[in-house]
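Milestone M4 deliverable, item 7.
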Amino acid sequence: MAVSQSLRVVCTLNFGKKPGSKKGTEKGGTKSGSMLGTLRGTQSGTKRGTQRGTQRGTVKKAPKRGNDERPLWLPNAEAPEWLDGSLPGDRGFDPAGLAKPAEYLLFDVDSLDQNKAVNKAGSLLGKVKPETTAVSDGIVPYNNLNDINRYRECELIHGRWAMLAVLGAIVAELVTGVNWVEAGKVELDGATYAGLSLPFSISQLVVIQVLAMGFVEIQRNGEKDVEKRCYPGGYFDPLNLADPSKPEQEFAMKEREIKHCRLAMIAFLGFGVQGLTTGTGPVENLAQIARSFG
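Output delivered:
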């Protein structure tokens, strides 16, 4: 969408200009340099317009810290430039380059002079980068699916669910003696919670869960602030542990949370592999390991 809009601007500037005209070239270059900057590039834009366009088209980021000033996922590793350490838990790990900022190539319009024997294709004018990360009203909330802020939100949501799942699997097995692998079979005989029978059928429980989770997701996606989508605060932080007035404490709490999220996701992956191979839950599996040493 950004490329098509930029091409329309370029077409507007070039309209009415005679091919090969020096005057037209200088005029088009001056306008495009001041209005588009890097979009017109060095081909026709002036140096001043190129510099201004570059400054306006680049998103300001926190200064990148050296590798010796921040912990990395591997000693002596080189962190990508888009992982500058400003996010909690940033250890410079992105081997696939998933969070690399998106950039698009912008080409000039092709020559369409019917009096010429050969019409040259449009040349490369420069690169276009999205200026900011915005949240829209559509089904896809972010305007850039590969943005690092979107990946951080997904990581936090998956990590928080993983923490609840790990805790629920362990506590449920300790209280009821039924591991999470066999829990579905037990529920088919009648809904129970902590050994107590519930007056709901499985189909009724599914409807309740769908409605409850649908309401939660609608409320969450209604938030347009990128920071509040990840850290809403308020009722979700009753002890005010992540106090915005104490930035160092707030950053430390966010970093602890993301560490626990990552650990919980790995733990539940282990639960899944263990359930497929042994058919037992985490508590029973730990008991078997303990008996093997006894």
